[in-house]
Amino acid sequence: MEMNKYINQNILNLPPSGIRKFFDLVSQSSGIISLGVGEPDFVTPWDIRETAWYSLTRGFTMYSPNRGLLELRELIAEYEQKSIGVSYDPASEVLVTVGASEAVDLAFRALLEPGDEVLIPDPSYVAYAPGATMAYGVPVAVPTFDTDEYRLKVDQLAAKITPRSKLLVLSYPNNPTGGIMGKEDLQALVKLIIENDLIVLSDEIYAELTYEGQHVSIASLPGMRDRTVVINGFSKAFAMTGWRIGYACGHSDIIAAMNKIHQYAIMCAPMMAQKAAIEALKNGHHEMKAMVEDYNNRRLLIVKGLREIGLSCFEPRGAFYCFPSIQRTGLTSEEFCMRLVHEAKVAAVPGTAFGASGEGFIRCCYAASVENIEEALERIQQFITHL
Amino acid sequence: MSEKFTMKLLRLLEQNSRLSASALAAMCGVSEEEIKDALKTLENDGIIIGYHTVVNWNKVGVDPVTAMIEVKITPQRDVGFNRIAERIANFPEVQSVYLMSGTYDLSIIIQASNMQAIADFVSYKLSTIDGVQGTISHFILKRYKDDGLLFESHETDTRLAVTP
């Protein structure tokens, strides 16, 4: 029976994920070294796991308040104050969510009217455009370039603004490029954002993984606090991807609207994950910094290695990805990655999975062991030499 | 050699002494030559004492006996505990010697092929040293972790091969 006629048109028309096809291919092959993952290679620090375990033995298996445990919200507010210098009221301006992903979805649904345009730097993480579409918004890609180190430039943004522009997504440090936005880079956008009355969704999930200088949030710039929803979580910094725990901070009206959806759709984030997140913020700093230092070492290793192979690669300053150009091979990103799996047994993700501006580039995740990175570099070199 | 570079190099090697010179060079932002020179200097200065491998001998059917021995000694004028500690440390079967605070003075870790060999060491070599007042031996029954490394890790990489 053909059931697609029952499916909502908006969902039916969503393009399939560019990564899915690739995932199937890699899963069917063996002996692959994968630089295609999007998560830490560390297991969650033991203290955090042990605390979650203890919370279960103590019987913390119930619902929490919709917005999350107050203790966790207080710690989040304290953490954001320290890391981005913006203060939020734990009672009304912090919402604990099921991963940062839920927070992104809630922000879209709480803010968008049908037809509102969402400006999304391209390339970017794969979920923003479909997320906007599912909330009946219209995603508008704003291209960014390796020559700008993938910073969002004000003239590129201005060119895409229309009377329907409502929301700007900023996700720096950036997946897939590793690009970051410094204070001046963000400052350059503020006037345009305020003139056009845009709200900013700032996804800062990779904030702790900033290797040069300090992460800066646009929310910390004058005039931007109330029009920015800061989204963050524990997945990347604390290696807690599977716990699904994140949060949003912002103006109390926006957080209240997001909480309205959250309370009906989700109820609350898992209690065990909230207990684990409390431990992460209380005592996880030291281990987190050690993981960041480890990523940094591997970043330096892979970038140097790729350049020595002859693939130009701008210096990624955040997240755990690098985004080398494969243009000199004359292959498209997808051809390159397909052949790389088949012929060299290395998985990387085609840049086009993250938007049209990713053509000519591939995403390599360096959350892999040094041995695997070195072996992958060796294989890529062999592959390119024999093209 | 800047102090920052030295410290970083030492931290990297302490975690994984098998990192190649080229990997160390990339991570420290220097040339391979500089890495090799730095290692030579650190080795000559006795800052890097050695490189060793942590082996779980049980897995290959070898079952050495390890004991921790508490030793009480009479400190000597001018040299305190040092001379006796060094004398004990020179025995090849002695793996570690520590001066301790608390109710005894030296903690010794000794490994041998069987219990008798350890008993012989204690009664013929250790106890007969002038200044050794007494010893208490504790035999190690099972190793769970050594040098920061778990002997049985239940953690495997369960990540999906490709994720966004």
If you had to describe this structure to a student in words, what would you say it looks like?
The complex is a heterodimer of chains A (387) and B (164). In chain A, helix 3 crosses helix 10, helix 4 packs across helix 10 (271-283) and helix 5 crosses helix 9 (252-265). Chain A has 387 residues and is of the alpha/beta class. Chain A has 13 helices and 12 strands. Chain A has 2 domains: 4-44 and 286-385, Aspartate Aminotransferase, domain 1 (Alpha-Beta Complex), CATH 3.90.1150; 46-283, 3-Layer(aba) Sandwich (Aspartate Aminotransferase, domain 2), CATH 3.40.640.10. Chain B has 164 residues and is of the alpha+beta class. Chain B folds into 2 domains: 3-44, Arc Repressor Mutant, subunit A (Orthogonal Bundle), CATH 1.10.10; 64-142, Lrp/AsnC effector binding domain/regulation of amino acid metabolism (RAM) domain (Alpha-Beta Plaits). Chain B is built from 5 helices and 6 strands; from the N terminus they run H-H-H-E-H-E-E-H-E-E-E. Chain B has helices at 3-15, 21-28, 32-44, 82-89, 115-126, and strands at 65-73, 94-99, 106-112, 132-139, 145-146, 149-150. In chain B, a hairpin with a 2-residue loop joins strand 5 (145-146) and strand 6. In chain B, helix 2 (21-28) crosses helix 3 (32-44). Chain B is extended. In chain B, 16% of the residues are buried. The chains are: A alpha/beta (387), B alpha+beta (164). At the A-B interface, helix 2 and helix 11 of A face helix 2 of B.
Largest sheet of chain B at a glance?
A: 4 strands, antiparallel
**SSE run of chain B:** HHHEHEEHEEE
* Topology order of chain A in helix (H) and strand (E) letters: HHEHHEHEHEHEHEEEHHHEHEEEH
**Overall morphology of chain A:** globular
Strand composition percent of chain A: 5-15%
Alpha-carbon distance between the termini of chain B? 41 Å
- Can you name the CATH architecture of the largest domain in chain A? 3-Layer(aba) Sandwich
Q: What structural category characterises the helix and strand content of chain B? A: alpha+beta
Structural class assignment of chain A: alpha/beta
CATH H level, superfamily name of the largest domain in chain A: Type I PLP-dependent aspartate aminotransferase-like (Major domain)
Q: Would you count the extended β strands of chain A for me? A: 12
Adjacency order of strands in the biggest sheet of chain B: 2-3-1-4
Strand content of chain B: 15-25%
Gross CATH architecture of the largest domain in chain B: 2-Layer Sandwich
Helix share bin of chain A: 40-55%
The greatest interface here is: A-B, 29 and 16 residues
For the largest sheet of chain A, list the strands in their spatial order. Answer: 2-8-7-6-5-3-4
